Fold this sequence. Notes:
A two-stranded antiparallel ribbon has the order 1-2. Helices cover about 50% and strands about 10% of the residues. The chain is mainly alpha-helical. The chain is globular and about 50 Å long. Helix 4 runs antiparallel to helix 5.
Amino acid sequence: MAGVTEFAVRNYELGLRAPRPQHLEALARAIGVDPATLTDYGVEAARDALGVLFRLEEGFGARPEADAAGARVAVDPAAPGAQKLDAAVRAWAAMRARRDSGEISDEEYVDWKRGFGRVSS
């Protein structure tokens, strides 16, 4: 596929038309995101999200933690295959802290999430 029209990108973003699997990479390039961000994981309810968390536990050593402050998911950096996820979550935490402190704007934070690191740290 030579290129993707702006119209096709708009339709995709509006959910008006599902692209064929072979078009996702071209769409991702056209809107400047990683192709994986265009994958619909079907997470629409807490049960779906828990399924994703279970996969993170099995594949990356993620584990649940809970106390009076709330529930969260922690990454065990010593777990097999978890080092990159640990580093990525630490980068996310740092960017979230920058956003929360006002050092960067909401728009810069969203842009960083879309591009996984376009905003300098």
